[in-house]
Amino acid sequence: MWVQDEDEDTAAADSDEECAFSSEDEEDLQWHILEKQRDEANQRLSELEEASNQLLKEINVLEIQFQIERSCRESAEALALKVTKDNKVLKRKSQMLMPLIAELPENLPDVTFDPAVNGDEVDGDEVDGDKVDGAGGSSSEEMLLLESQAKITELQASVDGLLAEKLKLEQQVEDLTSEQTQLREQMILEQKAAQASETDLKMQVQLEQALQQISQLSTALCDIQLYYQDRLKQSQSAVEESSALSELQNLREQLEKSEEERKTLETQLSDANSLVTQLQEEGTPLYLKIRPYHNKITVHDMEYILEKSSDVLEIFSFKDFLKSRKKHGAKAADDLNKAAPLLDMKARAVDEMMERIKKGIVLRPMKRIQEDDSSWKDQKSDNRKSAILELKGMLDNMKRQHLRRVPSRRGTGRNVGEAELLMVLQRRRRAMGDNQEPPPSNQPQDVQPGLPCVPVAGDAPWAGESGSAPVLRRLKQNREKRDSRIRASALFISHQA
């Protein structure tokens, strides 16, 4: 039995080692092991039942033998009582026959109790008479006594043997009962071990099922996470698309606003062009009026006037234009309201300048500090105010000194002609229109009768433009700088749009 248990343990260990090979064959092997253990347990139970049945049969046989022995003992005891009684009787008789011992024959040991052997003697005794009767009676009693003693010894020996056998049987019964109890305990332990192994196997199966469920749940969770990640990506893409659509809508709105601003700027430009043409028309009679005084103005004074006028025009034209262009969220009405005073200020400045030139005011040359373009960018409002104040101061000084004329430091040999002065003024007026084409000069204009026709800017080249006059070179440089600034501002505006 123990060998079988060890074999079963080794088989279970081998089966446990084989279960780790694959997850698919694991369950089959476990079920096979369980069936095998169940069959072995059933076989053990059947063997134990057979052994218990045999033990019960042997116990029944022993009980039968014990009953037989007990009956034999009882019969032996009864026979012993009878023999003891007979012995007592014989003892009395022997005591009674003690005086007759001397008369016993000498060959008493050779005497047998066989009547056939001693037949002659018996017959002789019978022939002899009374002697024979007395001797025969005593010998028969002795023979009975000896036989009874022999039987008693035999019975005692048989009783002793029966007692020894009984003791042996009792010992065997005790051994069998102890073996039976041991077998029962062993069976109980084996049943408990089998139940524990079955519970362990059930727990292992449940653990494997739980692990499989956990793996399935983990895969399901991974799938759910992937699904929600896809949903999140889709939602993010939808949000991005919606944001892109909103940005596109904003860009469209900005484009519409920029188109509206462009239209407003075009209208402002057309108004400025019309104002330029109007100023040109108004400037022709003024020019005719100031013609007698043009010889009084020196080249340096004219250059100073042109620079100041160009600064004022640039301040009022390009700076304000860039400001109005940068403000994308402003309305067209605000732009128009802002542009109107600027145009009025331009017109007033030009009118005042032309009136003072017409009155024959001689400008005294003044030292002016050259400033870089960066200073104009950093101090827009201060430069504007300082330029306006400086222009007012110059005009006041000219009012005080209009009766006396101070000769120029550079001499009188560098005066500017009428046509050149008019061209410069007209070119400055063109700068107000952001390099827009002025109206053609060859068209007929409504000129007052008696006044000569004045050529418009752009009709003829500069007088002596190819010459080496320093005034013309300076004017050319200023024009190139102005054109470069205009191009830079146009590029900046296009990038912002």
UniProtKB/TrEMBL annotation:
Q: Which GO terms describe its biological process?
A: neuron projection morphogenesis; positive regulation of neuron migration
Tell me which GO cellular component terms the UniProt record holds. Answer: axonal growth cone; cell leading edge; cytoplasm
Give me the stretches of Basic and acidic residues compositional bias: 477-486
Coiled-coil residue windows: 31-65, 152-186, 238-282
Full protein name: Shootin-1
Q: What is the lineage of its organism?
A: Eukaryota, Metazoa, Chordata, Craniata, Vertebrata
InterPro entries given for it?
A: Shootin-1
* Transmembrane residue ranges: none
Alphabetical UniProt keywords: Coiled coil
Specify where the region named Disordered lies, as residue ranges: 1-26, 432-497
